[in-house]
Predict the structure.
Amino acid sequence: MECEKLSLTEAWDKTFAKSEKVDHCKVVFRNRYGITLAADMYRPAGAGGKLPAIAVCGPFGAVKEQCSGLYAQTMAERGFLTLAFDPSFTGESGGQPRYMASPDINTEDFQAAVDYLSCREDVDPERIGIIGICGWGGLALNTAAIDTRVKATAAMTMYDMSRVNANGYFDAMDEDARYAAREALNAQRIRDYKSGSYELGGGVVDPVPEDAPFFVKDYHAYYKTPRGYHPRSLNSNGGWNKTGTMSFMNMPQLTYTHEIRNAVLIVHGEKAHSCYFSRDAYAAMVKDSRYTDNKELMIIPGAVHTDLYDQVDIIPFDKLETFFREYLK
């Protein structure tokens, strides 16, 4: 189970300032499919013994130098050993072809991070949690439903990638629209096969049309400006392959969340276009469940989707610290 040799940037190239309160280094680990993943590890400076640990990923189409790294560094400042990783096929991680996504492999990415953390001498394997941001919020819930080692899960400004791919935004797609989407994706597969390469779908639209919905402008304000732009981020640049998220259409990922026995915190902004994903996911998680006492939905008044990416005065880090300290003890 040797790891692939990856080319990792040693310079600090994050979208956030480096903290003097933590020690930082690059690490690699393998998932069950043999893909080597690249990660930034953050450790409380001067900490000893076996620490509680948190693996962090997201948003969907972002890299560890953006939001997930900010979350990881901040939680490390608060006493946790943290791991912000690039998913398979993206960023500095391995996997070919590039810019693909998979509900199975990406859930496995989270589980592989738990494997890695569980085997570190400075981590208590009984105190491991995960944080998923945006599309990785849904994948975090899927991971919590299958991985009993995950003692606490936080889903931040969550997208259900299965639902949005199958139904479109705000569930606007009907069966005929879904069939048309499948036809277009399968036609794209033929074009890609003939050309021998995968056509990119394009990242966040730039420039933003005047009549664009607010959430498009919201994404642009993060991914396409110095606030959040990163040269390895799919959303900041050419985006996913056009067929990259196709498999999400047929594979609902939140089917067994009502069976999650360990703790879950779902956090979303009140004004976010995506808030319905979290509200509905929470309702489905607690419906007919025997394990509701450690489940919570937290709505942040006035916050929009990307506020929970990097606005440290809005992201409820105090709540996250309290939550993980309670359930990773």
About this structure: The chain has a mean pLDDT of 97. The beta strands are 22-30, 36-44, 51-57, 81-85, 123-133, 150-156, 263-269, 295-300. The first helix runs from residue 67 to 77.
